[in-house]
Amino acid sequence: MGKITGFLEYKRKVETCDTVENRLKNYKEFTVSMGEKELKNQGARCMDCGIPFCHSGCPLGNLIPDFNDNVYKGKWKEASKILHSTNNFPEFTGRLCPAPCEEACVLGINQDPVTIENIEKNIVETAFNEGWITAQIPKQRTAKSVAIIGSGPSGLAAAQQLNRAGHNVTVFERDSKVGGLLRYGIPDFKLEKHIIDRRITVLEEEGITFKTNAHVGKNVSIETLKIEFDAILLCGGATLNRAIPIKGVNLKGVHQAMDFLKQNNQRIDGQSKFNEVISAKGKNVIVIGGGDTGSDCIGTSNRQGAKSVTNFEILSKPSTGRPANQPWPYWPMRLRTSSSHQEGVERYFSISTKEFIGDKNGDLKGLVTVEVEWIFKKGERPKLKELPNTEKHWDCDLVLLALGFTGPETTLIEQLGLVTDFRTNIKASAKNYMTNISGIFVAGDMRRGQSLIVWAISEGRQAAHHIDAYLMGQSHLPLKDDNDLPRV
Predict the structure, then answer these.
(1) Positions of E strands within 382-429
(2) Topology classification of domain 6-130
(3) Would the CATH topology of 145-239+406-484 be identical to that of 243-403?
(4) pLDDT digit string (tens) for 391-428?
(5) pLDDT (tens digit, 9 = 90+) per residue, 20-78?
(6) At residue 355, what are phi and psi to the nearest 5 degrees?
(7) 220-223 long-range CB contacts below 8 Å, 24 or more apart?
(8) Which of 158, 151, 154 is nearest to 175 (CA)?
(9) CB 3.0–4.6 Å: which of 17, 106, 400, 424 could bond 407 by disulfide?
């Protein structure tokens, strides 16, 4: 598999980036691809390991050693076939996935792991450039129809799988364009939207119908869909933003991160009319929340011309290496520095926001924080302790709340009478992804909670298998045993 001595001969390399000065001038992707020879060398680093733990590290179960070997041998078309056999959209995961497969790479025990994600991205880009990715129209259609609500990664993956099984698939999207989180949550500098559009074109050519500005539960009746379709799959995501219950949260200048990010993506797409313009230009911006969404806010704020950008995280600063309680091949909660962090931000850990300060007009002018520490006791939930005499006032004109999500919106849940779990996600059978209502299924963040794009694709594929079996009595669509899937 690969070159037997490749991991001894070649060091790990990834794509380089354009300079910070240049990339802050626009919202385009800024990575610089490696040449084919270097990519082959990176594929050669894949070891002939006895048990490829990268398989279990990947929620999709990608056949990573197999496509690495073909890249090393220059067999790009074969590599593309192998990659697409388990992953409907490697152009998305190759750009956006945090690569749990790399953390599980056997080589990563004592060396830098194989650059799996970058190889994946280059395989699919080569396939598109060479014209190998074309519409795969099913040879025979069934008489069954499926409605999919939500066109994010889980909905798109399920749609393609069910269409391949011959069913008539219609995807309903409440926004004006297809893509869900991919289009309206991910900044263009991480995923330019023509990347989505070219894949949607293929899906349409395969026979999938997309209906936009179709908000099921509001301007589209869920009862009508129950009558017109043989099965319904809910893939609306976990879109309820987490709030911060402190004084001043309703001041002008305090916004949810996703409102900020979505508006910026819409602006780049040509939309210009908004009820309220959210802009970081010339402002002192504070982003509360240290995850990927917070990072995206940092990169976007800098591109909009923020005067300064500061990032608060209530958790303690992680270590740069693997924590002792998260050994290989588990996913480590280590300090991660994104390209957006490198573009300019002051990061603070173990800090909690106590109050937002406004002027007499209700405009945000600052906030107050306090330093905290976490108290851990065996058998108990961690407790947060404020440190005395650590309060501090910060001047700011814009605060972006990147605090995660609490679960799916409740409109459809209430209209359908769906049962939810203790985390407010829609409860579904672990065996077949069906809700408490026969014929209505759920996948993605609506079922498992806020998670990764690679998990969303996996969920969509799993749900498609179960829906196909429900409609036809059996299914030949691939299914990965949920018990084998890692929890990231």
Answers:
(1) 383-386, 392-395, 398-401, 405-407
(2) Fumarate Reductase Iron-sulfur Protein; Chain B, domain 2 (1.10.1060)
(3) yes
(4) 999 999 999 999 999 999 999 999 999 999 999 999 99
(5) 999 999 999 999 999 999 999 999 999 989 899 999 999 999 999 999 999 999 999 99
(6) -165, 145
(7) 220/172, 222/412, 222/415, 222/416
(8) 151
(9) 424
